[in-house]
Amino acid sequence: MRKYSVFAVAREAMRGHKGWGPHWASPEPRKQYDVIIIGGGGHGLGAAYYLAKEHGITNVAVLEKGWIGGGNTGRNTTIIRSNYLYEESMDIYEHSLKLWENLSLDLNYNVMYSPRGVMMLSHNIHDQQSFKRHINANRLYGIDNEWLTPEQAKAYCPPLDIAKTARYPINGAALQRRGGTARHDAVAWGYARAASDRGVHIIQNTEVTGIRRDETGRVTGVDTNRGFIGAKKIGISAAGHTSTLMRMVDVRMPLQSQPLQALVSEPLKPIFPCVVMSNSVHAYISQSDKGEFVIGAGTDQYNSYSQTGGLQIITHTLDAICELFPMFRRVKMMRQWGGIVDVTQDRSPIQGVTPVPGLYLNAGWGTGGFKATPGSANLFAHLIARGEPHRLAAGLTLDRFRTGRLIDEAAAAAVAH
Amino acid sequence: MLLIYCPYCEEERSELEFRNGGDAHIARPTNMAEISDEEFEAYFFLRDNPKGVIFERWRHIHGCGRFFNAARDTVSDRFIATYRAGEPKPVLDAEPKTPATVETYEALEGAAQ
Amino acid sequence: MSGVNRISGAGRLTPARTARFTFDGRTLTALEGDTVASALLSHDIHLVGRSFKYHRPRGILSAGAEEPNALLDVSRDAARRQPNVRATVQEVFDGMKVASQNRWPSLSFDVGSFNDFLSPFFAAGFYYKTFMWPKAAWHKLYEPFIRRAAGLGVTPTEPDPDHYASRYVHCDVLVVGAGVAGLAAALAAAKAGAKVIVCDEQGEVGGALHHDIGTVIDGKPGYGWAQQTGKALAAMDNVTLLTRTTAFGYYNHNFVALVERVTDHLAAVDETLPRERLWQVRAKKVILANGSIERHMVFANNDRPGIMLASAGRTYLNHFGVAVGKRVGIYTAHDSAYEAAFDLKRAGVAVPVIVDCRQKPGEAVLEEARNLGIEVLTGHSVVDTSGKLRVASISVARNGGGGQRKIAVDALLVSAGWTPSVHLFSQSRGKVKFDAATERFLPGIYAQECLSVGACNGTDDLQATIDEALAAGELAARAAGAKGGAQVALNGRNAFEWTGGMIGAAEGAGADKTVKAFIDFQHDVCAKDIRLAVREGMHSIEHIKRFTTNGMASDQGKLSNMHGLAIAAEALGKEIPAVGLTTFRQPYTPVTFGTIVSHSRGSLFDPARKTPMHAWEEAQGAEFEDVGNWKRAWFYPKAGETMHEAVARECKTVREVAGVFDASTLGKIEVVGPDAAKFLNLMYTNAWDNLKPGRCRYGIMLREDGFIYDDGVVGRLAEDRFHVTTTTGGAPRVLQHMEDYLQTEFPHLKVWLTSTTEQWAVIAVQGPKAREIIAPLVEGIDLSNEALPHMSVAEGRICGVPARLFRMSFTGELGFEVNVPADYGQAVWEAIWARAEPMGACAYGTETMHVLRAEKGYIIVGQDTDGTVTPDDAGLSWAVSRKKPDFVGIRGLKRPDLVRDGRKQLVGLLTKDPKVVLEEGAQIVADPNEPKPMTMLGHVTSAYWSPNCGRSIAMALVAGGRARLGQTLYVPMADRTIAVEVSDMVFFDKEGGRLNG
Q1: Do C59 and C47 meet the contact criterion of CB atoms below 8 Å apart?
Q2: Confidence (pTM)
Q3: Which residues does the UniProt record annotate as the domain Rhodanese (chain A) (predicted)?
Q4: Count of structural domains within chain A
Q5: A100, A126, C365, C532 — which has fewest CB within 10 A?
Q6: Does residue B106 belong to the interface with chain C, where contact is any CB pair within 8 Å?
Q7: For residue B94, what pLDDT band results from cuts at 50, 70 and 90?
């Protein structure tokens, strides 16, 4: 792999960038792999990378039915934070955040992790109680998260309106300074490049149509639109399509797939320094390095695989954004889109073994998957390699819906991801 | 925004008047107290989440207030039928009614005719 | 006459009507009806902006919504400043201020243009390969530098003083676009009797007829026919004609969103008018007549100011009467550009050359060019241009090589042909198909009830367009149920037939080393960038788009997508359809947030709910808190009192005398019917059969999974009638939950549910003197402990008003809750207050209510529970019936994790130092010295200073809490560790004797 650096770029600049090779190889699939990962998003590509890097398993294929990074990896609002409430959540999101901090150097690919701070606005006493519960739990767990007065919040994010007369006045905020954003495409491409360099096969335009098993029930490989591909182990990391894949092995899932919408504004000179979220009014916003306001909206209320949704969802979010930031009323929406998120009833992910030997699952990240990418990928690789979950993901098992040991971030705090 | 036919009001109304109620035809066990953990999990948590026809419940919450059922294609978001609560599942054509439906815009990519 | 480039006798504007505006401080005159672009061009101003990345000088490229370059800052006043306005769309009004963007210190001398020299370094995606080291440098060093350079316009900093409107409308036929096709379709649909809406983004109907002067329809010049037809349509009762109205989004089930620009073109703004209006249209049938967009040619240095689309050159001449230069060259791959040459030549403008990269242009246009004496170089290409801030010359060479010839020009009109606008069709989720013969994507398979007609459907011939549109209009009208009317027939002909077109790089794009042949102007994406992306392994068109940012600028690739696709296909060695298209997303052109928001601002964003006594509370100086949508009186400070002092006073007063509290926000549901008790048996954990009429019971409602969902006191008024109360925030979802079960699981039960939250005003009177306060006001109810014991209800009158009187207490004191019809709420409150105040009672707010209930260990669902708490966790096992065969949650409660040992249980906490009040949300540990991550046992759910206990009190969820009574635990805060003792939850009047006064 050609190392990327300022010097390499300068050298190539002198000769019209003729010398760059492909980010990742595009090989023909082998007949048999040690591991097949279904789903070429950040989680799947990252898992392949860590399988190769940390577990020495390089005979790995990532199968992607479209183009890598084309699912939720390339459709989210790129928010990164780890200030969750429950230990199971803190474990995995903080593991992830630590990996984010070093990811560009690790991959030799600039994923533009930018810890510009994620600020959650508190609008009432209930918010305040909830945020303090998070802040205290985070502090005792070693995760940064601090309470700001309205004045401190405005100092950190000058466009905030902290007038007490607002319909939703701001009575404080929780700030995670290490939270921030990253460049979503770069995450997929960086992992793909680094995995490919270690021998992983990245196979696009290849849709899994069946999962084959032997007489003991163990997986033996997958049928695809390009024929059968054998594998000793299979990992599913396919977000909204998980239920469809698991149906191939007759396992019903505690998942619903719903369109989650987002939008960007036209590019404007940056004035907005951090990420701001408000759960009471359902809005989150940041400004990208290109100057676009990146705004996350809600999910449509029904199940759908259409990657599109209704205008009323966008409307509701812009109502809230303009209520919080009245000067943005003259800003223009440039593009809206949707992704399909797989949502569990407790709004926490599922990572673990399945009833099918050799089949491993990473799903249910709902609206929070991007921030978890490195951590989830890293622990998913551990799960696949060892056949049992890593300590940090031990609580995310599928059987919690039977036992009742839910990790109910939503119920506990009504905090969106 | 969907346009939904309420089988009680016998009118098509905007989605804003309705609330989705999740999967239809999931009967609450009559012996609820006795069912196993697995049966409870299946009843309360596990769902087909189909990519295709879903049978789902809607409530005309800002209208007549009634719950009713619908068959809808989750790929095209088209309604195939709506019907009153308690009525049996309608028999649907084997072939989807909308061959025109593409899964997503993205399905066009690399596959435009 | 305004402007040196204004051609006398040309154009359709009225010379007498002028407007003045400023551009970067320079005052200019325009004609009424000018766009900013046409006005600037009339003054020979081409340079209007700088590109995003290289800061290259840029001019006006188009005459429409597809404009990528001419984005300007337009303001009426300081607060009405709009960045990124397309000069080609914005109409001039008198007094407007226009400024260029993304340049410093000035448009003609821009320091940022140094980037252009560094451009070899700034290849597509270069930033992924560098700026990585050291670890924190991206965020601290590089990113701030990049952000300073980012963006185009400047974000408004003042709240927007304008207002916006929104309208929902249903129609039979929505016609998008009012060019020839749209007008014909609308006419046919309207004559057939359909309810028609026709919209067009321009200020006038006519579409492509704006740039045309040769077309004849119905025996009239095309543009004139269009205006006449527009007027005729507007006059019809069944037609709504909307100009300056863009259909920007096609959503599910034929829901189309339009934005109408109402005042941005007016000099004097009528304050009663909205700036823009959102139309949310549900159409039975949609006819898409979006037309097509001309593409530019891709060749070296094709971005200099003065180089523009041929159709734009024609529009400026034929509509606005402006010649875009004095010596205008043409470079084309399509016949249409010839007509621009003809029109200019006839208007007296020098046209030195038509360079046509094709060997064989159309015969007719070639002949006309000869007749007009214009030199035509077929089989030639423009291989380079010169000119710093304005194109000065073009270099032309025969295709395949050979000597270059330099031709001086001051403008160059280009055309690579026309791209059908399938944006809305694609948004409707229709599937496009590639027509290889004409190299364009056309509507293929329809997904919704719509039809495409005219240029957006690939129909080139005028008569064919008219026929297709008329047929579609009538068909749509009939399909929508229209029955009336006569058929319409029209004939039309163009001056010339057109052929040709190309996509991708022309010969002049050169080898891909350093040549800048622009595809996406705003984002500075060149042909070589696409090729680089392919070399770097980006083989999906979506990857290529994202890697190069082609098509991601504010024009969303209207000009660039087809070129980028063709170049990618060539580099990949694939057919165009095999490479595919990037996704068309809403909106078609950018839409103002304020328009989408419309009326939803301030109190209309989310209406505040106020109780019937709100005005009284406000007059008493109460502070309010937001609880859900409700405004609740929080505390009633007297002059000079802090919140702490006010609450302490209220708490003492209630227990010593009495207090009056507004409990109206509690949710209330009337449950009526012969099976009402049976129904409640299923909805609550408690048993209801044995509750006698006139008595109340505290009920717990679970979700099916066994966790507490809501709670409240339920009073039985009669065998078949219950008055159910819920938490303040829970009322709507509890009703939904009940309706759900009643309608779908237990439909055999004869029960009716009615929300009565806002029907009743609720006045709680609590404290030793409560009875004394209300007794003289109450008629028909015996208030004695014997007749109306704790947890009972009676109907009677108070102050002559029908009332439901509950004997109940959320304070631990003797208490009543007076329910009266909401309209009488304030009057009854005042009557009660008139008795209470002289006795020394107080009005108290939610904070005091919280303290008093905590002193008694009463929980608040949602504060002391959080959706993961079972009745047993909350110490409420006594309220769960062991005898009932079924209730919602009965099975969920028995799951392994809900019955395991060590669950978090609600307990009391007493700080060792009684003066220390814990922080709500603080975490609890057993070992305060454990290193992080620490083992957390639970958290503080409620904590107050209790004036009646003279110390702090708290409630907490603690793992295995009830087994820890008496244990010392720790609450580590940032600055200190607080030792606490686990206690029971009743801190005051443990025996409960005060309930009976």
Answers
A1: yes
A2: 0.95
A3: 35-79
A4: 2
A5: A126
A6: yes
A7: low
